[in-house]
Amino acid sequence: MFTGIIEEKAAVKKIEETDEAMILTIEANTIMDGIRLGDSISVNGVCLTVTSFQSNYFTVDVMPETIKATSLKVLSEGAKVNLERAMSFDGRFGGHFVTGHVDTTGTIRSITPYENAYYIDIELPRQIMTYVMVKGSVAVDGISLTVFGADDENNILTISIIPHTWQETILNEKKIGDPVNIEADMLMKYTEKLLNTRQKTAENITEETLKDNGFM
């Protein structure tokens, strides 16, 4: 579990590719403090497991399904990535619940400076817009952000980036047309699942069911 508060912007040192998988070696500083084998690290919002490490870098395996479902497939050696260690329950919780299980990728459609902020429009698949509401939460490349605008007709999510987030994450390196990893608010997804389950249960209650169970 993560908070979406990025701890470090780091560089991909090496990419080893097989037929359908890859191994990433990432240079880092801040998150190396106390790192252990098997730790979960969010890399651009994707929860990955540390398989080896030295004083200034660590490696993670990326499985075929993860490559297909996320923007990690477009990484190149030297590219910058957002990093966050798994949430510590003895610290402050400044973002929102982020699992590191990416729902989809979105496409950046515009980046607009406005005063000290940047407005970014991201096109999403229609089914993901179900979980997007103004002032709700979303994780973009692992960054916990508040939804600034939601255009359901055109499937556009708008986020507003403050100067600190712009400088300390990889968003300032993004261009129009770039993909970003999107994880919708898990509370929205659980709510939808619960409501759908209750609706299906209600639909299955017939007069015959009530009679069979002694209610009529």
UniProtKB/TrEMBL annotation:
UniProt cross-references to InterPro entries, sorted A to Z: ATP_synth_asu-like_sf, Lumazine-bd, Lumazine-bd_dom, Riboflavin_synthase-like_b-brl
Q: Where are the Lumazine-binding repeats?
A: 1-96, 97-195
Pfam families, per the entry = Lum_binding
Query: What CDD domains has UniProt attached to this entry?
Result: Riboflavin_synthase_like
Q: Which UniProt keywords apply?
A: Repeat, Riboflavin biosynthesis, Transferase
Matches recorded under PROSITE patterns = LUMAZINE_BIND
Question: Is the Zinc keyword given for this protein?
Answer: no
Its EC number is 2.5.1.9
**Per UniProt, what is one GO molecular function of this protein?**
riboflavin synthase activity
Which GO BP annotation is one of this protein's? riboflavin biosynthetic process
Q: Which reaction does it catalyse?
A: 2 6,7-dimethyl-8-(1-D-ribityl)lumazine + H(+) = 5-amino-6-(D-ribitylamino)uracil + riboflavin
This protein's pathway: Cofactor biosynthesis; riboflavin biosynthesis; riboflavin from 2-hydroxy-3-oxobutyl phosphate and 5-amino-6-(D-ribitylamino)uracil: step 2/2
Q: Where is the Lumazine-binding domain?
A: 1-96, 97-195
Q: Which SUPFAM superfamilies match?
A: Riboflavin synthase domain-like (SSF63380)
Q: What does this protein do?
A: Catalyzes the dismutation of two molecules of 6,7-dimethyl-8-ribityllumazine, resulting in the formation of riboflavin and 5-amino-6-(D-ribitylamino)uracil.
What's the subunit arrangement here? Answer: Homotrimer.
Question: Which protein, by its recorded name, is this?
Answer: Riboflavin synthase
